[in-house]
Design a protein that fits this description.
By secondary structure, this protein is α+β, with helices and mostly antiparallel strands. It has one domain. Strands 1, 2, 3, 4, 5, 6, 7, 8 and 9 form a 9-stranded antiparallel β-sheet that branches. It is globular and about 70 Å long. 44% of the residues are buried.
Length: 412
């Protein structure tokens, strides 16, 4: 048996035994995720949906956006097949290749980089998406004969008020979101996909994240962002199956058939002006967010999950929680799974830190765009944040089995 898989199974047994006397009863409109509290276990790779969307959010992220550097369709198709096979292996806790890091000839380069040897699967999920430029380049070129398969919902995001986007860390032809409970496992996965893709793709930009800032399951507690507030209290959850069908998953008739059952991903790197925020009074911080800092309850409410009351002036008109609430956005909601980041300092003694925002939705034009338009114009929080990176990707449905591959529906 593979050593990483063996260790993962051992960890699963220990955790299961420890949790046996502490199981609570909750009523969901769908089955609760079975693996949310087992950081060593493997997440299934094959299925009708891509893992890493409603999967209980792991602790660590390595996100990467690639540019395709070939004009040959056959090379792209072959790469996606190789990537899919490697992803299936790595999510099981195996080496990326069949030979592995140490099983080959000493004279040949290994087909795995080796830094995850001895580590369990750590809940690794790999989620792929295709950006607008994958279908037609910025110069208008249809490199792979798939321009007519670009979904209308994959429309370029508009420039929002106060955006300070850096082109070098925005966009991309293909993205891969690697999430795991061990950062080395996530980094190993991205490193090996980049190695396999040499000569066909190149890394455009990447982002490491820690400390998930959203819960995607009711089995998880709400996490905090670097401003110290609970983040994503009103997030869609894996158990909300009816809402997910309405707000998250692309339906037949929404666009091209290859996207049915998939979802759209928006990424935004949001720099937080940490030092300025830290000198702001607690009362002003809470007024800006619209929630108290300790419990996470909306102002005027007692508990975190109490529905906010927007009558009167308890919650300010420019408070973040009011402007983002579905009541003021035609019912639009998102499934968020963002992460904190700290990328050192900016050379002036200030932390280069903030939130790497990731959200999934059925149609960005009807969900993210109107919500972000309101926030960018009116949110009091804008004084303390800067949006520096942006991405939009179409994430197809899951891989059905060993004969299927990422993006196969695009090329048949």
């Amino acid at each position: 048996m593979d050593r990483r898989k063996m260790l993962g199974l051992a960890g699963a047994g220990a955790l299961g035994a420890a949790a046996g006397g502490a199981v609570g009863v909750q009523i969901f409109d769908g089955p609760p995720p079975a693996r949310a509290n087992d950081p060593g276990a493997a997440e299934p790779f094959y299925g009708t949906r891509q893992a890493g969307i409603i999967t209980p959010a792991q602790d660590r992220l390595h996100f990467v956006a690639f540019d395709v550097i070939t004009d040959k369709k056959a090379e792209v198709v072959e790469l996606l097949q190789k990537w899919t096979a490697a992803a299936a292996r790595m999510t099981e806790g195996k080496d990326a290749g069949t030979i592995g890091a140490v099983g080959g000839q000493p004279e040949a380069a290994p087909d795995d980089t080796g830094e995850a040897l001895g580590l369990p699967p750590s809940g690794l999920t790999l989620t792929v998406g295709f950006g607008p430029t994958f279908f037609r380049t910025a110069e208008g070129k249809d490199r792979f004969g798939i321009a007519d398969k670009r979904p209308e919902a994959l429309a370029d995001l508009p420039k929002f008020a106060k955006d300070t986007l850096q082109p070098g860390i925005s966009g991309g032809d293909i993205c891969v979101q690697a999430c795991a409970h061990d950062p080395q496992v996530a980094v190993h996965a991205v490193r090996n996909l980049a190695r396999i893709g040499f000569g066909v793709v190149s890394v455009r930009w990447s982002q490491l994240g820690f400390g998930r800032t959203s819960s995607t399951s009711r089995t998880q507690a709400t996490a905090r962002n670097l401003f110290g507030f609970k983040d994503g209290t009103a997030n869609l959850k894996a158990e909300d199956t009816a809402l997910l069908d309405e707000q998250l998953w692309v339906r037949a008739g929404d666009g091209p058939e290859w996207m049915t059952g998939g979802s759209y991903m928006v990424t935004r790197k949001i720099r937080m002006l940490i030092e300025t925020w830290d000198r702001t009074s607690l009362g002003e911080q809470e007024a800006i967010i619209g929630r108290n800092k300790g419990e996470g309850a909306a102002l005027g409410s007692a508990k975190e999950f109490d529905e906010p009351v927007f009558d009167g002036e308890t919650i300010a008109m420019d408070a973040h929680v009011r402007l983002a609430h579905q009541k003021f956005n035609d019912g639009a909601r998102l499934l968020r799974r963002g992460y904190n980041f700290v990328d050192g300092s900016d050379g002036l003694g200030r932390l280069d830190a903030g939130l790497f925002f990731i959200a999934y939705m059925r149609d960005p034009r009807k969900q993210f765009v109107p919500i972000q338009t309101r926030l960018s114009r009116q949110d009091a929080l804008n004084e303390y944040i800067r949006h520096v990176s942006s991405g939009l990707f179409a994430c197809p449905p899951g891989v059905s089995g060993v004969d299927d591959s990422w993006g196969r529906g695009l090329f048949v």
